[in-house]
UniProtKB/TrEMBL annotation, chain A:
Record-annotated ChsH2 C-terminal OB-fold domain positions: 247-308
FAS1-like dehydratase domain ranges (all copies): 24-141
Disordered: annotated span: 156-203
Pfam families linked: FAS1_DH_region, OB_ChsH2_C, zf-ChsH2
Keyword hit for Transmembrane: no
Source domain of life: Bacteria
Protein name per the record: DNA-binding protein
Biased composition (Basic and acidic residues): 165-174, 180-194
UniProt keywords, alphabetically: DNA-binding
Organism: Streptomyces filamentosus (Streptomyces roseosporus)
GO terms of molecular function: DNA binding
Residue ranges annotated for the ChsH2 rubredoxin-like zinc ribbon domain, each copy included: 209-244
UniProtKB/TrEMBL annotation, chain B:
All residue ranges annotated as the MaoC-like domain in the record: 10-101
Membrane-spanning ranges: none
Signal peptide range in chain numbering: none
The protein's name: Beta-hydroxyacyl-ACP dehydratase
Record-linked Pfam families: MaoC_dehydratas (PF01575)
Amino acid sequence: MSGDALYERLKAYEGRPAAVAGRGKDPVNLPMIRHWCEAMGDAHPAYAGPDAVAPPTMLQAWTMGGLSGHEDRSEAYGELLGLLDGAGYTSVVATDCEQEYLRPLRPGDEITFDAVVESVSPRKTTRLGTGHFVTTRMDVRAGGELAGTHRFRILKYAPAARPPEPPERPDRQDRHHRQDRQDRQDRQERPERPRRPRPVVNRDNAGFWEGVAAHRLLIQRCTACGTLRLPWLPGCNDCGAARWDTVEAGGEGTVHSYVVMHHPPFPAFDPPYAVGLIELAEGVRMISNVVGVPYDEVRIGMPVRLEFLRVDEELVLPVFRAGDGPGAVAEGER
Amino acid sequence: MRTGDALPPLEIPVTRTLIVAGAVASRDYQDVHHDAEAARAKGSPDIFMNILTTNGLVGRYVTGHFGPRSVLRKVAIRLGAPNHPGDTMTLTGTVTGVTEGPDGTRTFLVRITGANGLGHHVTGTVAVEVPR
C-alpha cells in the first residue's frame, strides 16, 4: 500500500471512538495516590491525610490498562493501531498531553471514560523515525460527572536505524568491543566521541584536500578566463574550459551568512554551533565552522581569518577564526 | 506573583529509579520506560521517562511554588528531547497571565520549560488557582 493510500485509510478513523464506556480498573484510592506522590516527590498537603484528593495530573493514570491491557479500547481504535503496526509503524511514543481539571477526584470515585480519535497526521519523519501522529480526546467522569478532559497525542513510528558504532582504533582491534566498553566504564571515562565524518575525496577534488593537509587552502583558477572557483569542479562555470591551475588563499575573509545549529544533534558535533558561509578576500565563498567567538556572537560582515583545525590523527579541516584569538587551534578544540 | 515574574528553577536528577517508579505509579508498562534493551531495539539509546511522569513533575513544580492551597486547573505539555537516566532536568517557569475571580481567587497562567542535557524535554502551560 502506498503512503498516500495508507493515509487515506488512517484519516477515515478521525471522529470515530477510541474508547467507549471505559471503566477505571480501580476506584480512586489512597495507596495509588501515595505511590504517585512518592514517585514524583510531590509533598502537596492536599494529596495526603483523611480529606486527600488525587493529584489532578493523575487523571490519565486512573484510565490506564496496566499490565492486563486495555479491554476498553474500541474496535475502531484497535483497527487504526493495527493498520499502523501493519505498515511497520510498530513503536509508540507520547508527545503531547493537555488536561483540564473540572472537579477533584476523591478516594472512592468510580472512573469511567470515553475517547474519540481527533486527528491522524500525514506521515512525518522525526529523530526517532518515520510515522503518524494520532491525537485522541478523552472525557473522564467520576460517578458519572465530568471530572476532566484529556487530549493525548502519540507518534506511531518505525524506528530509525541506530548510527553504527564508531570504528575502533587500530590499537584496540584485537579486543572485544563489549569488553572495551566495560573497561572504559570501569575506568570511569567518558566513551570516545564518535569521529567527525570524513570528506568525500575524488579525483576532481583530491588536490583541494592535499592542499588542506599541507595547511594550504587552494582555489581553482580557470586558465582560459581566469575565473576563480571553490569548491573544486571539473570545469569552469563561466566559460566551460576544462584546464585549470590553483592560487593559494591569503586567508582573510568575512562572514557572508551563517546559521546556528541547535537541532538535531549529530554524532561528533556538539550543538549549538555556528556554521558560516565565508567570503574569502579572493571573492569565492566556502562553508565552514566559525571559531573563536560564542555561536550567538557570529554576525554577517564579521572579519575572519583562515586556520587549520586538526580534528584527529588523519583529518585536518579549514576553519575560520573571528576576533583576535590565538592563531593556532589546539587539537580537539571545537 | 505578577505577569512576567519567574518561578525559581527546580532541578530534578533523572535517575533510572525515578523513570521506573514514575512509569509504575502511572501504570504505564510500555517496555521503553523500564527495559533498556527493548528501548534500544526501538531506536532509543536507553529507557526514557514517560509523559505521565513529566506531567506529574510539572504539576509538582507549579503547586510547590504556589503553595499548599494551590489547585491545578490545566496542564498542557509537549515533549521534545527525552529524559534518559543520568541526565538532570531543570524546570523553569514564567507567569504569563493572572486573572482574579469575584471571590478573590486568582488564576495564574505559567509557561514552563524543562531543559535537560539534550535540549528542551518539555514545554507547556499550566493554569493554577490560588484561593484568597
